[in-house]
Design a protein that fits this description.
single chain; alpha+beta; 5-stranded antiparallel beta sheet
């Protein structure tokens, strides 16, 4: 009896289960595609335009606001994944990564200036040096926020590309 129960347990663990997840997708005014798993995270003015994306181990499907389900599997005659060509995908990834690199370089420059300001503060102990340090730290914080936003935009584009079955070499 124990052998049978153990065998059934092992069989149930080995059998593939269907994983299901629902996400929401919307495009903002700048054309950036966003994804979330919580409808409350969608800005109010985009909620009506948001589409529910059903993901499972099988083919992903997009559920339009009207309730119609559209399969996201591209037919074999589709000209390009996600409705865009190779050049669009490559340009989009390149522009986001270029902007990210610019922000990271800007942050490195600000960090260097901050180190110099701290060195001056240690030597001269002036109040205006402390104010400059505070301003510089605020600038670094703003750039950090922009970098975080840019990383989120790249991740959202990568997720959209993955759902549209965009080849990996187009995402480089």
């Amino acid at each position: 009896m124990k052998t049978i129960l153990l065998s059934l347990l092992m069989l149930s663990l080995l059998a593939p289960s269907l994983a299901r997840a629902a996400f929401y997708q919307w495009t903002d005014a700048q054309g950036v595609v966003h994804f979330t798993d919580n409808r409350n995270n969608i800005p109010k003015h985009y909620r009506d335009k948001a589409q529910r994306v059903e993901l499972s181990d099988s083919t992903p499907a997009v559920v339009s606001p009207g309730g119609k389900t559209e399969s996201s599997a591209a037919p074999s005659t589709a000209p390009a994944p996600g409705g865009h060509g190779e050049r669009w995908w490559r340009d989009r990834f390149k522009s986001l990564r270029t902007e990210l690199k610019t922000l990271q370089d800007q942050r490195a420059g600000l960090e260097q200036q901050l180190v110099e300001l701290r060195r001056k503060r240690t030597i001269f102990q002036r109040a205006r040096d402390r104010e400059a340090i505070n301003r510089m730290e605020a600038q670094v914080s703003v750039v950090d926020g922009k970098i975080s936003e840019m990383l989120n935009r790249i991740a959202a584009l990568d997720l959209a590309a993955a759902q549209a079955a965009v080849p990996l070499e187009w995402r480089q």
